[in-house]
Amino acid sequence: MKAPELGIKIGLYGHGRRNSIADLGVKVGHATLIEGENIRTGVTVLLPPVENPYRERLFSATFVMNGFSKPIGFVQVEELGYIETPIALTNTLSVYTVANAMVKHMIELNPDLKSVSPVVMECNDSYLNDIRAMKVGEEHYFEALKNAKLDFEEGSVGAGTGMSAFEFKGGIGSSSRVVEIGGENYTVASLVLANFGRREDLTIAGVPVGLYLGDYPGRGTSGKGSISMVVATDAPLTARGLKRLAKRAIVGLARTGGYAYHGSGDVVLAFSTAQTVPAGKEPEMTSFLPDNALNGIFRATAEATEEAVVNALLQTKTMEGNGHVRHGLPIGKVLPLLGKHSRSPGF
User: Fold this and answer.
1) Is 130 a catalytic residue?
2) Helix (H) or strand (E) holding 177
3) Mean pLDDT in order along the chain per 10 residues (347 residues)
């Protein structure tokens, strides 16, 4: 169950109908690999709501809070301000395999293609997964692509299969917000691959629940790790506006207890579905939201990202792998803490 179904209120704005990135028409698919005692990994693919992303490019931007990360495709997004492929998530050592599969996918859609910039983001799942076995193959990208849909699973699936967060089981989480600006409703949604955090830092809805769960079993690692965040909106924004929006995802991350420790990769990709940029053409002039109208969009980005991290934790279960165990967040212990809303015990 997600935060709202459990009575956990995060932020001020209301949710979209699905409370996920699917509220922007983005389809999400997973390929989950669980084999033997040591393989816990996978691939997640996000499909923007266009027929051919290479021909119908979307304005986009990136932001790197902490660069201990290996995303592919960010350089061209920074330079040109658009994405031209789906977006994939996987483990650190599989980004190259998944990128190669994505290139083949784009060639299939565009037989005349001679250059393309695949976008693949990653986190390191080696605590629960034998990452050196490199079990993710190109076929798993295509499996995730085939599985893409609006009503998608969250938690320990796809790229989130072997991930950890706050020394609990982590994974995929998503949330959306709707904000009114100038009489128009706009949606902002975030999808995260959460694999970061020290137990004591975990904060949910402003309550430092991690301080009360320090003795809960399953401790391990120093709290370094990574999070890959994808933010989508239907607000008409330029690449510059999307860069500013991407930075606000970090505000939501910080509210959950993310501190971008050394060794952590904290990266954001943001895109708008409001307008396409035809391949080989300059975008036609259109109206964009002015800077002084963006405060609501910024807050919605922070709220959606904060809840996406919480939703990732809420939808996972205990998993063993690679000689370790990650317990699912003990919701039965967390909910009373949120209801009590007591002061910090003074750690």
Assistant:
1) no
2) strand 171-181
3) 96 97 98 98 98 96 96 97 97 98 98 97 97 98 98 98 97 98 96 96 97 88 85 96 98 96 94 90 75 95 98 97 96 92 41
Catalytic residue among 23, 125, 234, 266: 266
Predicted pLDDT at 344: 39
Q: What is the C-alpha end-to-end distance of the chain, expressed in Å? A: 30
CA distance 312 to 289: 31
Q: Is 94 a catalytic residue?
A: no
Q: Which of 226, 228, 234, 272 is catalytic?
A: 226
Other residues' Cβ atoms within 10 Å of the Cβ of residue 233? 28
Tokens 């977006």 map to which residue? 87
DSSP 8-class letter at 14: B
CB-based contact 129:41 (threshold 8 Å): yes
Catalytic residue among 60, 94, 264, 272: 264
DSSP result, 144-176: HHHT-BSS---BSSGGGTT-EETTEE-EEEEEE
Interatomic CA distance for residues 108 and 269, integer angstroms: 25
In this structure, what token pair is assigned to residue 206?
């402003």
pLDDT score for 270: 98
Specify which residues 119 forms β-bridges with.
Answer: 87
CA distance 150 to 147: 10
Which pLDDT value is given to residue 220?
76
